[in-house]
Write a structure and sequence with these properties.
mainly alpha, 14 helices, 0% strand, globular
């Protein structure tokens, strides 16, 4: 199984953004505009669509800000841009729900927790926020309110009209190309060099330690092989651009996080196929082998 062929298009879009910026084909401000479009338009559309379509029973100070942002870069995975297409390509329709659930967990739990920590350690203006402000900021986040709204639709079994689904799907389709192109356009070799030690630590933890912990814990608990394999793929995905958006919003470690996204995205070209080989060796039947 040639896993590289499966994930190559995503990395080709990143390289397109990198070279388009390097050769001045596009403006240097395009990355910010694309991220804004992806974050405030595409993400809510896709997030609500994913959550609303799944029944609930099927959905299983400054230094403080710096540490929180680094933790986001190490933990928040790019499930939407990497895990979802990879699992779908390898496992077909069966691979979609696990990645969707991972997106929901990140949107409904991990991102709000990160925002609460950022607000508690100074917020965007550098002053500690009240509980009311923290709650409002969490609820206003484009990765949070669509998930909450989607949970409400799913819990109450409210059908989403076909025309609305088509509209949201069309907007959601812009998420991957816009975000991947923006990530490539924001790559700065100088920031990778200047933050080498921090980025190395984040990359090792994100791409090697986390999936290893997930795999070991899942094996110890006797989890279903397919769900465990999907969880490992999600955990082994590179840092999500959501971490960069939040770092910009809260003015903390912007270049470091952008470099971490670049580094983990480039490195996962090697590490993700290796994890897929490990999973294929453990459960060959999942990959069609005998």
């Amino acid at each position: 199984m040639d896993v590289l062929i499966v994930i190559a298009p995503a990395f080709a879009v990143i390289l397109t953004g990198f070279f388009a910026m390097r050769f001045a084909i596009v403006s240097r401000t395009i990355a910010d505009h694309l991220i804004a479009f992806a974050y405030f338009i595409c993400v809510p559309s896709l997030m609500f669509s994913i959550v609303a379509r799944h029944p609930l029973e099927g959905l299983l100070g400054r230094d403080g800000r710096s540490r929180t942002v680094s933790a986001m870069a190490a933990v928040i995975a790019n499930t939407g841009f990497v895990s979802l297409p990879l699992l779908y390509a390898v496992f077909g329709a069966q691979g979609v729900p696990p990645a969707a659930i991972a997106n929901v967990v990140i949107a409904a739990l991990m991102v709000p927790l990160s925002i609460m920590l950022l607000e508690a350690t100074g917020g965007a203006g550098g002053e500690a926020a009240t509980a009311a402000r923290q709650t409002l900021q969490v609820l206003k986040n484009p990765m949070v309110w669509p998930a909450i709204l989607g949970f409400a639709f799913a819990g109450l079994a409210i059908p989403v009209p076909d025309i609305v689904e088509s509209w949201l799907d069309l907007l959601g389709q812009g998420l991957a190309p816009c975000a991947l192109f923006a990530i490539g356009a924001s790559i700065r070799a100088e920031s990778i060099r200047s933050e080498a030690r921090r980025i190395l630590a984040i990359s090792v933890f994100k791409l090697l330690v986390m999936p290893a912990l997930i795999l070991a814990g899942g094996l110890a608990m006797g989890l279903d092989p397919f769900l465990l394999a999907a969880a490992v793929v999600c955990a082994a995905s590179p840092t999500a651009n959501t971490a960069y958006v939040l770092s910009v919003q809260y003015r903390s470690q912007e270049q470091s996080v952008a470099a971490a996204i670049s580094a983990t995205t480039m490195a996962c070209v090697i590490t993700l196929p290796l994890w897929m080989l490990v999973l294929a060796a453990l459960w060959p039947a999942l990959f069609g082998a005998t």
